[in-house]
Amino acid sequence: MSTETVSTRPFPDQKPGTAGLRKKVVVFQQPGYLENFLQSIVDAAGNYRGATLVAGGDGRYFNDQAIQTLARIAAGNGVERLIIGRSGLLSTPAASHLIRTRRAAGGLLLTASHNPGGPDGDFGIKVNTASGGQASESMMEAVYRHTRSISRYLTAAVGPVDLDRTGESRYGPLTVEIVDPVAEYAALMERLFDFGGIRSLFAGGFTARYDAMHAVTGPYASEILHRRLGLPADWILNAVPLPDFGGGHPDPNPVDAADLMSVMTGDDPPRFGAASDGDGDRNMILGPGMVVSPGDSLAVMTAMATEIPGYRKGLAGVARSMPTSRAVDRVAAALDIPCYETPTGWRFFCNLLDDGRIDLCGEESFGTSSSHVREKDGLWAVLFWLNLIAVTGKSVPEIIQAHWRRFGRNAFSREDYFIADAGIGDDLLARLEASVSTMIGTRCDGRPIRQADVFEYEDPVDGSVSGHQGVRVVFEDDSRIVFRLSGTGTAGATLRIYLERRIEDGPLLCRPAVELNAPLSQAARSIASVGDLTGLSSPTATV
Ligand code: VG1
Ligand code: CO
């Protein structure tokens, strides 16, 4: 099999964001676009000659074609073994696990996560390294620089690879191995959690629903929740992965997981509900009539980790992304373990995990996970909660309310403003950054501002510094507003405003967070001049 060198011209827009490169499908479909990006990863991020790589995706439109292109570029660049999930599917956490167990040099995950799919939707690629975690900021910057000057890519006549049959095929020096995407991941979950206890829970009549949102976790949930744990098959909603996710956003939040929400808020709701996103790394946990705030979920998991078989020994430490509520900080202080604050994006947790400094970490965007992989993990979080319910015999609301009574509550909500003109978003943030130093000591809507800064992170393991990671404004009463721009969109700009208010035990403890944070929402609009600069009178979405 001969390798061909194809000359190409750079595309100017291949700058990766918070988690890989995301663009409209039509952008990825341009001749040479995908090839250029893949070749740039090879040239800038890793010499994969003779190496093993893992590949798979969330099943979205263009997934199958992209895998064939990936196989040709891998062969052209001397990759020795390509491990692909059957039908081209691999959830992000399952891919992370495979990279680690198979000692692969890295992985290429074909996903735009929770972004919509289909021919008019989004496509994306996450790049993972040998540790199983996402490539660092500096590595992705090097990939981007390479895309700006690329002049050739290497390819070889491979395939088409039959993605549906497990087993090995040889294409010249390249071996393609198609694996069951679920098996090794399911075995890992069995090692971490008390499957017998969860099975007894369901056998005893405990009711639940899981919404796979027509995305990648359908086959995982069918195998783990249904076959191994006894959840009735029809309690898994939207279980079949579809290229357009059935027309919805595969985003596990109360707005987009509408099917699940209608069951959970209807008459006689199940005792437990959960959903995951497109690539299976996010989770939403619900009890009857309540959504567990992701920051609370992380705090509860930290407080109760030793109830779970895989975490009996206790936790070395925990971490949260900066905008995530500081609920977990209270628990870490009580347990006397370190709590790290990192920029948004899972990759910042990976050094801390590799270095053994933390065992649990999470983000406000419905992401939590542990040292078992180097990605966030949706089904893992669902199993963690089911295991907690099985050992304590308590319901979701009972667990949450007991936690609040013990540690107090950090009521958290997020507002997203979609700004069609990306330049306006950049300008708004630049103005905020410029004004932080003059804010301290002033008042906003009568509230004294105690601290205001632009978050910068110095990685304690490798010393790398990441600047411009969001603007923080903290008030005298410890309430906090965080502003940042999304790095995962494919059009315009999305301003994210994170609101957090501390509530101690008392009559306000169980009020809805959006209601508790209404005054902060007003303050945020005025601090950032949202109305004047964007013309938007209310958020596009509130989570
Ligand atoms: C969002 C979330 C962030 C998450 C990232 C990737 O990024 O805020 O917490 O790590 O998505 O998640 P941004 O830059 O849009 O705020 V996933 O499930 O899309 O890979
Ligand atoms: Co995701």
What does this structure look like?
Helix content is 34%, strand content 25%. The chain is of the alpha/beta class and 543 residues long. It folds into three domains: 179 residues, Alpha-D-Glucose-1,6-Bisphosphate, Chain A, domain 3, CATH 3.40.120.10; 223 residues, Alpha-D-Glucose-1,6-Bisphosphate, Chain A, domain 3; 134 residues, Alpha-D-phosphohexomutase, C-terminal domain (TATA-Binding Protein). Strand 10, helix 8 and strand 11 form a beta-alpha-beta unit. Helix 2 crosses helix 3. The structure holds alpha-D-glucose-1-phosphate-6-vanadate and cobalt (II) ion.
Task: From the structure above, extract its key features.
globular, 3 domains, seven-stranded antiparallel β-sheet, single chain, TATA-Binding Protein, 543 residues, Alpha-D-Glucose-1,6-Bisphosphate, Chain A, domain 3, binds cobalt (II) ion, 25% strand, alpha/beta, seven-stranded mixed β-sheet, binds alpha-D-glucose-1-phosphate-6-vanadate
Q: What would the average pLDDT be, to the nearest integer?
A: 95
Shape: globular
- What fraction, in percent, of the residue positions are helical? 25-40%
User: How do the strands of the widest beta sheet line up side by side?
Assistant: 2-6-5-3-4-9-8
Topology diagram in text:
Blueprint: E1 3-7, E2 21-24, H1 25-28, H2 33-45, E3 52-57, H3 63-76, E4 81-89, H4 92-101, E5 106-110, E6 122-129, H5 137-147, E7 152-156, E8 167-171, E9 174-179, H6 183-192, H7 195-203, E10 208-211, H8 217-228, E11 236-237, H9 258-264, E12 272-276, E13 283-287, E14 290-291, H10 294-304, E15 318-321, H11 327-335, E16 339-342, H12 347-354, E17 360-363, E18 367-370, H13 378-392, H14 396-407, E19 409-419, H15 422-439, E20 443-444, E21 447-454, E22 457-458, E23 465-466, E24 471-475, E25 480-485, E26 493-503, H16 513-516, H17 518-527, H18 530-534, E27 541-542
Parallel strand pairs: 3-4, 3-5, 4-9, 10-11, 10-12, 15-16, 15-17
Antiparallel strand pairs: 1-7, 2-6, 5-6, 8-9, 12-13, 13-14, 17-18, 19-26, 19-27, 20-21, 21-24, 22-23, 24-25, 25-26
Helix pairs in contact: 2-3, 2-5, 7-13, 10-11
